[in-house]
């Protein structure tokens, strides 16, 4: 794509980056077919190509973001499906990040929107605050309809999501959890922000799985939110601050003893941390360390595949529909390991039709864009039901919360299923299915009896 920036404009590193990305787009439009918002709305301005044109026009003109640009960029899920499809390798992720930051700096949103955004960025990244907000939201759930009626549909969406939380989990305290048996590896675990109160079972299962494979797990003293939530809202400075804080926390740990990996069990956070090298690339004091951190960051499933999963202790005929989060399949391009591990653990894994289309969660999208998010959730739910699974597995808390409770099919994190198959406690959602699970020991004993007969 031809661009028209002046030499002066290109002095600005952000404009320079936008320009180099824009030039790679050949406006072929292939990406439109896999873009969820274009599939739903059919408006070119809600497609990747249309948004690229809007962003190009904004950057070239050196203008403040217009209502039109803000409206269509806000509707983008940052699902990155377009990046998987694009034959030209357009780095849409970093382009839309630049646009979101520009919109945030130059565009004044209506007061209600500003208040909701500021509230989200103040509450969600802090697990203790978020836990209190969840408890309050549970009390307020009966007023959900009323909030929608008086024009506060975002607050209604928030109550809806909060209502899906089971027990509100405690925050995992910093410390060292020793390996069971001989220590083979040492890792740091990012415990996440929203994930801790929403579904504490994910970190519990992750820690059990790792320690029972001889891995020492360290929870760093000063680690915090990965920064993805504020980053997606265009708050670049806050995102950079969050990244610096985590880089400091993990490099402090590494001063005492090296880490084999930084483990992440929410793929949205994984995509963000793996991008720390880029986010801090202009920061001399952090660049190298950020690149190292990004380089040793692993999704839990990748790490487990690398070290090798132990043989399962339970065996079942349960059919698992694997929901690949956008941040997993498009953001990190991880498609093989989660499925392979579930199969190794004895589950029958099936794919969900239209697996490339987002479920509508997308960070805070389901709160800020509840109608579109609701349509995508219902579409995903129908697709899940079409393969009639016993349960659904996913590797991202956002998707789990978004899809939970939409039908009778339980949805769990992949590590919860792996942990269960390897001898961990039965997740509450699977209590009704325990009759279909046998212990591997009893199966072996049965086969020995048959052989002896
Ligand atoms: S597929 Fe890639 S090159 Fe083609 S229009 Fe979309 S972003 Fe541009
Ligand atoms: S990130 Fe997703 S929603 Fe946004 S333009 Fe690309 S495919 Fe469409």
Description:
- This protein has 453 residues and is of the alpha/beta class.
- Among the domains are: 9-106, Fumarate Reductase Iron-sulfur Protein, Chain B, domain 2; 306-444, Rossmann fold, CATH 3.40.50.
- It has helices at residues 13-22, 36-41, 48-61, 67-74, 81-85, 92-106, 111-123, 127-140, 144-149, 153-162, 195-198, 201-211, 228-232, 236-256, 267-273, 276-279, 287-296, 300-307, 326-331, 337-344, 365-368, 370-386, 397-403, 414-421, 440-452; strands spanning 175-177, 185-190, 215-219, 261-264, 297-299, 314-316, 319-323, 348-351, 391-394, 411-413, 437-439.
- The strands form 3 sheets. The protein has a 5-stranded mixed sheet. A 4-stranded parallel sheet has the order 8-7-9-10, with helices on both faces.
- Strand 9 (391-394), helix 23 and strand 10 form a beta-alpha-beta unit.
- Helix 1 crosses helix 6 (92-106) and helix 18 crosses helix 20.
- The site of one iron/sulfur cluster has 13 residues, from helix 2, helix 3 and helix 5.
The CATH architecture of the domain at 306-444: 3-Layer(aba) Sandwich
User: Uncertain regions: pLDDT < 50 for 5+ in a row?
Assistant: none
Shape: globular
Task: Give the proportion of residues in helices.
Answer: 40-55%
Classify the beta-strand content into a percent band. 5-15%
Compute the separation of the termini in Å.
75 Å
User: What name is given to the CATH topology of the domain at 306-444?
Assistant: Rossmann fold
The strand order across the widest sheet is 1-3-2-4-5
CATH class of the domain at 306-444: Alpha Beta
Query: What's the gyration radius in Å?
Result: 23 Å
Largest pleated sheet = 5 strands, mixed
Q: What is the arithmetic mean of pLDDT?
A: 92
Structural class: alpha/beta
Count of DSSP E strands? 11
Q: Cofactors and ligands present? A: iron/sulfur cluster
Number of helices: 25
């Amino acid at each position: 794509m031809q661009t028209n920036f002046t030499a002066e404009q290109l002095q600005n590193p952000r404009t320079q980056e936008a320009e180099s990305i824009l030039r790679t787009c050949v406006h072929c439009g292939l990406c439109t077919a896999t873009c969820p918002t274009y599939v739903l709305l059919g408006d070119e301005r809600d497609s990747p190509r249309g948004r690229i044109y809007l962003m190009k026009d904004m950057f070239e003109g050196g203008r403040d973001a217009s209502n039109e640009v803000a409206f269509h960029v806000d509707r983008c899920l940052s699902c990155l499906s377009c990046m998987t499809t694009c034959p030209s390798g357009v780095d849409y992720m970093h382009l839309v990040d630049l646009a979101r930051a520009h919109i945030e700096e130059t565009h004044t949103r209506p007061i209600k929107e500003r208040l909701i955004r500021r509230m989200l960025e103040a509450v969600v990244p802090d697990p203790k605050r978020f836990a209190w907000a969840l408890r309050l939201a549970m009390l307020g759930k009966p007023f959900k309809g009323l909030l929608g009626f008086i024009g506060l549909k975002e607050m209604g969406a928030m109550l809806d999501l909060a209502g899906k939380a089971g027990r509100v989990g405690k925050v995992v305290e910093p410390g060292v959890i020793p390996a069971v048996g001989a220590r083979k590896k040492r890792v740091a675990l990012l415990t996440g922000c929203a994930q801790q109160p929403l579904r504490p079972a994910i970190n519990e299962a992750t820690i059990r799985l790792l320690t029972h494979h001889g891995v020492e797990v360290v929870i760093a003293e000063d680690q915090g939110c990965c920064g993805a939530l504020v980053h997606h809202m265009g708050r670049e400075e806050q995102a950079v601050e969050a990244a610096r804080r985590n880089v400091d926390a993990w490099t402090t740990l590494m001063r005492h003893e090296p880490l084999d990996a930084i483990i992440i069990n929410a793929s949205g956070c994984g995509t963000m941390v793996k991008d720390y090298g880029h986010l801090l690339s202009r920061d001399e004091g952090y660049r190298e360390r950020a690149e190292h951190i990004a380089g040793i960051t692993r999704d839990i499933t990748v790490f487990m595949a690398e070290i090798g999963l132990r043989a399962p202790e339970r065996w079942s005929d349960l059919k698992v529909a694997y929901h690949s989060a956008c941040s997993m399949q498009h953001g990190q391009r991880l498609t093989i390991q989660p499925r392979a591990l579930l199969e190794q653990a004895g589950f029958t894994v099936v794919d969900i039709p239209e697996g490339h289309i987002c479920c509508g969660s997308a960070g805070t999208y389901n709160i800020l864009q509840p109608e579109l998010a609701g349509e995508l959730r219902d579409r995903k739910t129908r697709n899940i039901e079409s393969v009639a699974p016993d349960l659904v597995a996913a590797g991202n808390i956002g998707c789990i919360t978004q899809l939970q409770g939409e039908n009778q099919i339980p949805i769990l994190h992949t590590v919860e299923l792996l942990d269960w198959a390897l001898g961990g406690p039965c997740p509450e959602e699977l209590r009704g299915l325990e009759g279909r699970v046998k212990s591997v020991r009893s199966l072996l004993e049965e086969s020995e009896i048959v052989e002896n007969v």
